[in-house]
């Protein structure tokens, strides 16, 4: 047992070094200016840098839309799958796992082909304006559609784990016996018991959207990750400072998620005991 604990601490220490050493090197690079010593100018210049606010706001808007669409798509589907068609679970799992198999470069190549094909062949139909609206630079909804597909594996896993921990059939039947309709049973009974799973799925989707680069870059849009890359070509310290700051914000969101999830589980357990 002592040897096993030693190996665990050794693995934990190596994992900590693997993550913390590059982060520490990045922080030192941003604050150590040759000839000037330690300075925080790289961090103070972030907010005033051209494109920072607009790109971050665009990424947050894309993340909010992606979370809404993917949850509206997956939550009813997963609940219906568990209640009415459990034999289809392996099929849905395989379909939702396909984005992990398809390389992002191939995925975006297919999207580009469709976007180029549409205006050429549908220029005299009402669908032409749809293709134009999908590529609106102010809010490229085509990125939302792409991110929904890319988030499917993570959202599916989070919701599946949450549904496994809840007796959905009993909850729905109890709600139905009290006179609730299917939408009311889903919103008022099932969703409160999936709060932790919904938070996990939302956080994973948010992290994916904020860090995604390939699809947005190749389609010609500039959300936050693409802006960081473009700034890095001329202002290396600023680019690394933004990356460090975004990583810290992501960790803060993860800790917030863990706290909220722990409180929801505690409240649910207390209600069950009461």
UniProtKB/TrEMBL annotation:
<feature type="domain" description="ABC transmembrane type-1">
    <location>
        <begin position="56"/>
        <end position="257"/>
    </location>
</feature>
<keyword id="KW-1133">Transmembrane helix</keyword>
<dbReference type="Pfam" id="PF00528">
    <property type="entry name" value="BPD_transp_1"/>
</dbReference>
<keyword id="KW-1003">Cell membrane</keyword>
<dbReference type="InterPro" id="IPR000515">
    <property type="entry name" value="MetI-like"/>
</dbReference>
<feature type="transmembrane region" description="Helical">
    <location>
        <begin position="240"/>
        <end position="260"/>
    </location>
</feature>
<protein>
    <submittedName>
        <fullName>ABC transporter permease subunit</fullName>
    </submittedName>
</protein>
<comment type="similarity">
    <text>Belongs to the binding-protein-dependent transport system permease family.</text>
</comment>
<keyword id="KW-0812">Transmembrane</keyword>
<keyword id="KW-0997">Cell inner membrane</keyword>
<feature type="transmembrane region" description="Helical">
    <location>
        <begin position="62"/>
        <end position="83"/>
    </location>
</feature>
<dbReference type="InterPro" id="IPR035906">
    <property type="entry name" value="MetI-like_sf"/>
</dbReference>
<keyword id="KW-0813">Transport</keyword>
<feature type="transmembrane region" description="Helical">
    <location>
        <begin position="197"/>
        <end position="220"/>
    </location>
</feature>
<keyword id="KW-0472">Membrane</keyword>
<feature type="transmembrane region" description="Helical">
    <location>
        <begin position="139"/>
        <end position="159"/>
    </location>
</feature>
<feature type="transmembrane region" description="Helical">
    <location>
        <begin position="95"/>
        <end position="119"/>
    </location>
</feature>
